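Entry type: protein chain
Record version: 2
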Amino acid sequence: MVSVTAVPISTSTPEKPATIYLAGDLGKSACKFLYWNTAEELQPLWLGSDVAEGVSPSVIHKFDAAGDLAESVWLQLGGSTILVGNSAADYGSSFSADKVQVAAYQVVAALGLAAIHLGIQAYNAVISLAVPLNEYRFKAEIETRLREIGEGVVFCGRQQQFTVTPSFYPEGTGLYLLHKKEREQAIADPYTRRVVVLMMGHRNLSVLVFEGGRLNANQSQTSDNLGFWNCFKADATSSGIRETDYPSLMAAVTSGKPQQLSKVAGGLKDFSTAAQAVREGLTSRVETFCRDNVMDLLINSDRQTDVLIGGGVAHVMRSELRDYFTELGLAENLYFADIVGGRLLTLAEQTRNAQGDLARPLRFADVYGLAQALAGKVNRGR
């Protein structure tokens, strides 16, 4: 007879994997993220948008001495090495690549940095992502790629694994959610106005129309041709500025200080004429876009309409945009996304290299709105 010893059945519940909550705005000028878990406050993360695949593994050793991990991100998937952020800047990153080609790597880079900060290796990731309206159709492909990578990735020499629960929103949705919340707190009533959101980004210009709290996709659209960078290059070239001096001209435009160091001149140069040409060119193009795509929404509206503006370009053009919409009789219905101030300003100021970037709160507002919505959803589910 075989003696069998009974083994007590454990009644303890296995420890659940940690969860990282992440909101992301995958802009071309920079990727903006906010992350947290149940024991942490919102943590801001500013990450370069460049991605370079198929890089020789030998190059990653030069990043070992980097002081800031966010400046030296690299991933290894199978036999492939991928650089993300500023580490990829000199390795052939594509400006025009669709989000589906780079979004998963950018998100994984943010998750990797968050996991290291939180001291975890395996985790669940609950994510809200903003993507351009004209690339929204790629969301299933982005999700599939994230799930594949989550099975196992080496992040800066550390093995990580994660499961992912993503939600996708057109760029500018976070601006609307933030604005709606702010207005409802101000008026102490439900906010039912139609809202036209102008999202003025580095690579594209989007108009989103929200009615009754829902996106009207038929009246919303994105233009790649009217992104800041394409307009900037066209007007810089017309003004005789060489590509070598683009950073100096950009500084003149964004700071309002025309005197900048010039590689071409070998010293200080006055960029006043070129900077004015860029501003006038932007103003002209945006006014044309609004006349063709926004005016009908204002003329034919059977309900009160507000205009909400976000994106880094909006800071550069704030006075011109205010003048334009004031001439249309919309001075009292015009809002810039950074008007909410408060915690948005604090978080934006905490991001890397924020000093001197006066547009940082406007650039950070979309992801802040998504993070607020995700946090609210998580808290309601508890």
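Comment: Residues 100 and 140 are 9 Å apart (CA to CA).
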